[in-house]
Amino acid sequence: MHDHHHRPRRPIRPSRRQRQMVYLATGLLLVSGLAWLIAHFLLPLPEFAARHPLEPWAMRIHGAATMLGLAVLGGIWGNHVLGAWERGNHRGSGGTMASLWLALALTGYGLYYLADEEWRAIASWAHIALGTALPAGLAVHVIRAGRLRRAAA
Ligand code: HEM
Ligand code: HEM
After folding, report:
1. Distance between CA atoms of 132 and 34, rounded to whole angstroms?
2. CATH topology assigned to domain 16-152
């Protein structure tokens, strides 16, 4: 019977399209971030170039993926993040995901606007460390969610 004293349960699982967009944005961020790292640290500089020509291209894609990712995060915030948190499901890996996105946005903002060399270097290394943790965190989160869903089915 429908209980009128309780609000209907919000759907917690991100929709199919939202899941695809989470994976697309995360994948683009990872691939473009890795491309920048390879171009910056591993590839030989072409003659007379101040930086490898691949770097600005990697960051153009990275910036676009950031905008997509933050829009997708906003889309799943109300139902998924807050809803799952209220129910107390997967608070560890989910809370880690939300914190990583926030910290990556903050350190990424620092990379745009910090002029001081030392602070910029700190933001850069923090960002790269957090960025590497993001896909791993998402994998853990999604695998755990899948296990619980199959156990409940
Ligand atoms: C406090 C924060 C969060 C909590 C407590 C949480 C909790 C959960 C729970 C309980 C599920 C299983 C849902 C179900 O099967 O009905 C799930 C799945 C999922 N979560 Fe989160 N989550 C959080 C944040 C995030 C964030 C920030 C992202 C991505 C940016 C994310 C991405 C996903 C995705 C893609 C799935 C679907 C996995 C699948 O069913 O294939 N979550 N989460
Ligand atoms: C929530 C996800 C992320 C956000 C919001 C984000 C945002 C940003 C922003 C705004 C920049 C500065 C762009 C520029 O200088 O033109 C940046 C740079 C960078 N990001 Fe990310 N990023 C994210 C995830 C990642 C991931 C997953 C990696 C993978 C390792 C990564 C690696 C890098 C690298 C290597 C740079 C260049 C660092 C530098 O210039 O010193 N990012 N990111």
Report:
1. 9
2. Fumarate Reductase Cytochrome B subunit (1.20.950)
Query: Quick one: which of 28, 10, 16, 136 has its CA closest to 81?
Result: 10
Å from CA of 129 to ligand 2 middle: 10
Residue-wise pLDDT tens digits, 54-70:
999 999 999 999 999 99
Residue 32: CB atoms within 10 A of its CB come to 20
Q: Is residue 94 within 8 Å of 82, Cβ to Cβ?
A: no
Q: Which of 25, 48, 40 is nearest to 111 (CA)?
A: 40
- Whole-angstrom Cα distance, residue 8 to residue 121? 49
Residue whose CA is at the smallest distance from ligand 1 atom 21:
94
pTM here is 0.90
Give the binding-site residues of ligand 2, using a 6 Å CB cut-off.
29-30, 33-34, 36-37, 59, 62-63, 66, 69, 101, 104-105, 108, 111-112, 124, 127-128, 131-132, 134
